[in-house]
Fold:
Amino acid sequence: MWAFRRSRRQRRRRPRGRRRLLGPALLLIGSLSGAAATGALLLWVRGVHSHPAPPRHAQPPAPRSAPLYRAAQPRILPRSTWLNATVRRTQPPPRYDDAVVAVFVHHTDSPNTYRCADTPEVIRRVYAGQTTARKWDDIGYNFLVDRCGTIYEGRAGGVERAVIGAHSQGFNHRTAGIAAIGTFTRGTVVPRAMTDAIAALIAWKLGLSGVDPRSAARLVSSNALSRYPVGAAATLPAVSGHDAGYRTSCPGAALTARLPEIRKVAARLQGRR
Structure:
């Protein structure tokens, strides 16, 4: 029978877990023969010391990091700022995609001489034209931006959601349409406030899907009237002019020339280098 003697100080320092295991373990070892007991004791001591207890002040798991390359949502005025009972029409519920992976930039092909205070009336005219002459169920653009850099919600459904618009023949799915209010043909001055607002809107909207504004997106044509046959895949810039997917002069040569700068600013607003 093995006997163990410990001083009072040693017994006081013994961890509680080992104190509970020590008695039963020694009784079991004591029932063995001499050689077997010696081997069992060595294995038991080695096992106890090879699995140290975790530190008392272990750090809690690190929280999940915030999504990378998300930009702040710019101020977006709701539809109620421009849509009133004089033009409002009954429309079906909005339709949604899983995500927005690309943006098409447009111009409204309307006069540039409007006052920014009159922007709601300009948007009402665009809405009325698209829902009467073209017989669309709502305004086609997801967003509209005026010459002072004010952003307006266009098509209904929620600015943060992937609302399917009616802005780019063949490529309305998984895209958002942003219309610059005015006409921006070659030689026209594009206001800096407008392009800065468009860049901020793109940075936020594409950031929701983790898309770099300088990258390319793979889209599938849904309409033979686009530049691509139905079902054909097209790789287009994540920030494209309307003419990239449809045969048109929109968004005008002057605004098209500003797209590289808009992509660059939007990427910077997302925190990309």
Notes: The radius of gyration is 34 Å. The first helix runs from residue 8 to 13.
